[in-house]
Design a protein that fits this description.
Order of helices and strands: HEEHHHEEEHHHEE
Helix content: 25-40%
Structural class: alpha+beta
Length: 185
């Protein structure tokens, strides 16, 4: 029988952190329910981050709390999302760029992630998108579909959530405009 200390009881009852630029992070298969000790805070945790983290060292276990408060990026001098991969970064406040790159979990993609922006701020990554997902949003997404380097008709007919042509749906945190990034293997 495991002995529960006051410390582990508090950890188990802690509410998971929320991420402004990834509000659905826990639904994206980038976290696993795995017991372990976080390489950053050295706390016993139940939730392990499993997606991209760009740093020289590769921590074995990163908990969501150390992503949200920036401790993981600070300790390992790393990024979850490429700072330079944030669209229109020259027009966005540095603090917002750092929040998206250092305190927001990444998403899984074929190529390196691209983070879309709108209203001079990083958008929230909503999730993976297929043709059914984008159908009711076509008017909002038209510019992204027409100007991303892929045949627009191919996107409209063949976009998947996990196939060779994947859609990544974003939404502006200010005006709620949807954006679409498309990636191919």
């Amino acid at each position: 029988m495991a002995i529960l200390t006051e410390r582990t009881v508090k950890t188990e009852k802690m509410e998971l952190p929320k991420f402004k630029y990834s509000p659905n992070a826990y639904e994206l298969d980038i976290f696993e329910n795995v017991e372990g000790v976080c390489s950053v805070c050295n706390e016993n945790r139940q939730v392990k981050y499993t997606s991209s983290f760009y740093s020289v060292e590769e921590p074995e276990y990163i908990c969501p709390w150390c992503i949200a408060d920036g401790q993981a990026s600070e300790k390992y001098e790393g990024e979850f999302n490429d700072y330079e991969g944030i669209e229109n970064s020259e027009n966005i406040e540095k603090e917002l760029l750092l929040q998206a790159s250092e305190r927001t979990p990444s998403y899984t993609s074929w190529q390196q992630e691209v983070w879309l922006t709108h209203c001079n701020e990083p958008c929230a990554f909503i999730g993976y998108a297929d043709t059914k997902t984008i159908e009711p949003l076509m008017e909002e997404l038209n510019d992204d579909i027409e100007n991303n380097g892929y045949d627009p008709d191919f996107i409209k007919s063949s976009l998947t959530k996990d196939g060779s042509l994947v859609g990544y749906l974003f939404q502006c945190v200010k005006c709620s405009q949807h954006r679409l990034h498309v990636d191919c293997d």
